[in-house]
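Run: sequence + glutamic acid -> complex structure.
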Amino acid sequence: MTVRTRFAPSPTGYLHIGGARTALFNYLFARHHGGQYLLRIEDTDRARSTPEAVRQILESLDWLGLNPDEEPVMQTSREARHAEVARQLLAEGKAYQAYDTAEELVAMRERAQAEGRPPRYDGSWRDRDPSEAPAGVKPVIRIKAPREGETVVNDLVQGEVRVQNSELDDMIILRSDGTPTYLHAVVVDDHDMAITHVIRGDDHLTNTFRQIMVYDAMGWERPAFAHIPLIHGADGAKLSKRHGAVGALEFRDQGFLPEAVCNYLLRLGWGHGDEEFVPRDRAIELFDLKDVGRAASRMDYAKLSHLNGQYIRAAAPDALLPPVLARLGEVSGEQRARVAALIPDLQPRARTLAEMADGARFALAERPLKYEPKAAEALDHPDVRARLARLSAALSGMDWTRAGLDAALRAFAEAEGVKLGQVAQPLRAALTASLQSPPIDAVLAALGKDESLARIGDAAEGVSLVGG
Ligand code: GLU
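>> structure
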């Protein structure tokens, strides 16, 4: 048997981080077993589905590296097939047409409530002859729920779950306008797509028992089910905007790497010993559903940032350049080269791409620089500026290599009889307009000789310290 999984989002909004984790688990499970991972866009709720949401879901999955192995299936494109299966069940006597009017259904619900019963359909048309059908009412098709016994699911995450069949009612599978209900469509699609494992959020667990009615009535083999716990916020409430970012693309916009987000989501609710850093290949090697916990997990943004920092440090500088540049807007060839030179020195401290971009921004600034107040203060002493002028003279004849610059700065400080920091801090202010930057020799090397000497010259002359 080839394992086939699917991720089946409803395009009624952006892809939530919990949905991203469901997609990831489906992907990893399929890959681990050498199978296929598919995508089905469940757009049957036409009033709430939007093309923009579809676009965002596809973009999110692409960003996360979770593109499906086959063309995505749009659920609405299969409505004729959903109806066909409903009619087959009708023809086989496993479903029936029900002609209840809206008022009758309301009355039925009220009766049930008054008697303290759950509001289930009472099966009034189950055994009635269609010749009794009232004129002018278009029927729905309802499936005949089993009335005796129980339905047992051996969920791969939740374990054995049982429901008494008396608790199931004859659910509608085809509406009177000929459109399928969602619970019916999902089963027909999963069967036709040859899905072997349905891995989804545990908010769908109760649906499973209703969906099984369709599998059993059609004589189709049931897939294995795995219902994974939802993601909560730190306070234990369902994760929502007030906890922080929730949309997959929000994490991208905040400067997280997709590899780090996937690693974090994987570790949220799945574990292999205390291995925290689990890149994609290792995740494929290790992932199995038996290691997924049953309890809801809690989103910890600080932990994600920490892990993201690890991924930034582990990344090849070349791989980080495009996303960092993308955050900096349009740059010239020279500016691009400056940023490229800085990347390795920005990696050790940054937790996000946004922090890396912020750390590189000084390299793009146009002279005269606008100093941050603390930098302006550091430069606002005649002797400091005079020292910068002497430094500029000392550096002007140099070959501009990082090692050479480092040695030159040390020699200069010694000659001046001051500590290296007393040279480096004003120099940093002069070059970056702030007091925080990558190592000063890296800054000099990235800016290049002409730009560095020009910035030092500006500071030595007090440009932009004085009004104007
Ligand atoms: N379309 C459902 C949702 O977005 C998922 C259904 C399923 O995975 O079976 O919640």
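>> summary
The pocket of glutamic acid is lined by residues 8-10, 42, 186, 200, 204 (CB under 6 Å). Residues 158 and 294 are 6 Å apart (CA to CA).
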